[in-house]
Specification:
It contains eleven helices and twelve strands. With 320 residues, the protein is an alpha/beta fold. It folds into two domains: 113 residues, 3-Layer(aba) Sandwich (Rossmann fold); 181 residues, Rossmann fold (3-Layer(aba) Sandwich).
């Protein structure tokens, strides 16, 4: 089997091993692949591994040897699932590798919004404390999480992990989920109730036609003026200009996002200059432990396909 990894750098910038994939067949690994390079690099591949390189209907039609697509991620919207299905090509993803890391990052963002550790540390280094007339100072309000309400949009694996951490902090947890099955310590509510009653709204739902633009001026207008929004899901869940307007006008207290609608962002993205907005570069998933699990699970997906028993197939699901 000939295996081609189109964009392996973000998963493994050099601190991990591709040995598990090399053991499965003739394997070529590229750090990055541009749209113009995709066909030439994958034309003789039996198995293509992609993270963010798009495999469109047109691209799939030009890969005559292609038998299996392994997505080096959880989200698989970069693959034309219908085109793959029509050609009998299974598509698998890795559903669980980043759960703990994304949940951890969600709270790293929230704690910066509420405790401002990084901002105060920078102030101390700049001489702010040395010049203070008092033994202690605060440049921002410091907010205790205990007793606050967290609203989780999407109660899948990551949403549930976030709920557990929130409960450990003493927060009351609300959730919106497609199937409102009972989950201990979590109150299922409708979307309007969640946005109205939450002190923190955090997004962990997939990107679908029904969730694109979910957070817009209307929903932001329902939030408490001292509430925060966190997005570690997908950038297009949020109408970014609407969020920037809400932040700049003081309609909500702050936001923290790890994802944007275009990545890397355009220089004129309104959130880059919005008030009280923390932005990290889509790396909530990227701890070394999570990336190691990602590569191991991808190798397992490929091995399972070679053995005739594909696993983690998304070919029969709707696009995320």
């Amino acid at each position: 089997m000939k295996i081609v990894v189109l964009d392996g750098y973000t998963a493994n910038p050099g601190d991990l091993s591709w040995e598990l994939l090399y053991a499965l067949g003739e394997c070529r690994i590229y750090d990055r692949t541009s749209p113009d390079e995709t066909i030439a690099r994958a034309v003789d591949a039996d198995i293509v591994v992609t993270n963010k390189v798009v495999l469109s209907r047109d691209a799939i039609s030009q890969l005559p040897r292609l038998k299996f697509i392994s997505v080096l991620a959880t989200g698989y919207n970069i693959v034309d699932i219908e085109a793959a299905r029509e050609k009998g090509i299974p598509v698998s993803n890795v559903p669980e590798y980043s759960t703990k890391s994304v949940a951890q990052h969600t709270f790293a963002l929230l704690l910066e919004l509420t405790s401002h550790v990084g901002s105060h540390s920078e102030g101390v280094r700049a001489g702010r404390w040395s010049q203070s007339p008092d033994f202690s100072y605060q440049d921002y309000p410091l907010i205790e999480l205990d007793g606050l309400t967290m609203g989780i949009v999407g109660l899948g694996r990551i949403g549930k992990a976030v709920a557990e951490i929130a409960k450990a902090f003493g927060m009351h947890v609300l959730a919106v989920t497609r199937t409102c099955s009972h989950y201990p310590g979590v109150e299922c509510v409708d979307l309007d109730t969640l946005f109205t009653e939450s002190d923190v709204v955090t997004l962990h739902c997939p990107l679908t036609p029904s969730t694109q633009g979910l957070v817009n001026s209307h929903k932001l207008g329902m939030m408490k003026p001292n509430a925060f929004l966190i997005n570690t899901g997908r950038g297009p869940l949020v109408v970014e200009q609407d969020l920037a307007n809400a932040l700049n006008s003081g309609r909500i207290a702050g936001a923290a996002v790890d994802v944007l609608s275009t990545e890397p962002p355009d220089a004129d993205n309104p959130l880059l200059s919005a008030r009280n907005c923390i932005i990290t570069p889509h790396h909530a998933w990227a701890t070394q432990a999570a990336r190691k699990r990602l590569i191991e699970a991808t190798a397992d997906n490929i091995r399972a396909f070679i053995e005739g028993q594909p696993k983690n197939e998304v070919s029969g699901k709707g696009r995320v």
